[in-house]
Amino acid sequence: MGEKEFFQRLLAISNEGLNYSKDPYDIERYNNLFDITQKFINTHLTQKPINFHKEQGYPTPKIDVRALILDHNDHILLVEDSKTKLWALPGGFAEIGISPVENIIKEVKEETGLNTTVKNLIAVYDTNKSNPENALAQYYKLIYYCKKLSGNLTTSIETSSVAFFDLKRLPVLSTKRNTEQQIIDCFNNKNGKTIIE
Question: Fewer CB within 10 Å of terminal CB in the chain, N or C?
Fold first, then answer.
């Protein structure tokens, strides 16, 4: 277990204890464990302080959905984040109340202006293994192969640019969202068996 995974587990265990413990002394201990873990992370592991929230219910990994969309030249659609100016496959956190497929269709529309249909699930990545520089939160990244139905490329509040790129000429990527290897693997496997990592 790496350092990041160790602190993820400490935060999860303290959250579990706060949610399910009945003993007031144990609740106090879990609060202390949570606060000490957060303080250690912010003084030893991060450049700027992170304020972790105590979760309701059982702590689980977050879900991130992404879309691989190709044009007629097999160029890959990427979006540029308006804050970081780094590029990634369109997508984002899945929202509660709608399915992963509905989430990716919504995210693509919001970030690119395109209406799409989902062809298949290409890959499922665990960011602890595939995107190790990611935040202390653990994500499961679902990447779908999508086809354009209609619409024109437009930017949004989240995206400062939207464009298609040749696989061999990708821009500077937001590796917290997608690595170059993930994009290559998904492109090569768009009609194959789902990659699970």
Answer: N
Instruction: Give the residue from 186, 188, 187, 178 showing the smallest Cα distance to 87.
Output: 178
Q: Provide the pairing of β-strand 76-81 with 159-165.
A: antiparallel
Count the Cβ atoms, other than its own, within 10 Å of residue 43: 9
Cα–Cα distance, 21 to 72 (Å, whole number): 56
Residues 8-18: pLDDT tens digits?
888 888 878 88
pLDDT, tens only, 30-62: 888 888 888 887 787 777 777 777 777 777 888
Number of alpha carbons in the 13 Å side-chain half-sphere of residue 102: 5
- Domain positions in the chain are 3-44, 62-196
Query: Which of 4-8, 103-107, 149-153, 191-195 is least confident?
Result: 4-8
The DSSP symbol for 70 reads B
Q: Which fold has domain 62-196?
A: Nucleoside Triphosphate Pyrophosphohydrolase (3.90.79)
Q: Which amino acid, one-letter code, is at 146?
A: C
Helices (H), the chain: 3-20, 24-44, 100-112, 127-130, 180-188
134: nearest Cα among 145, 124, 125: 125
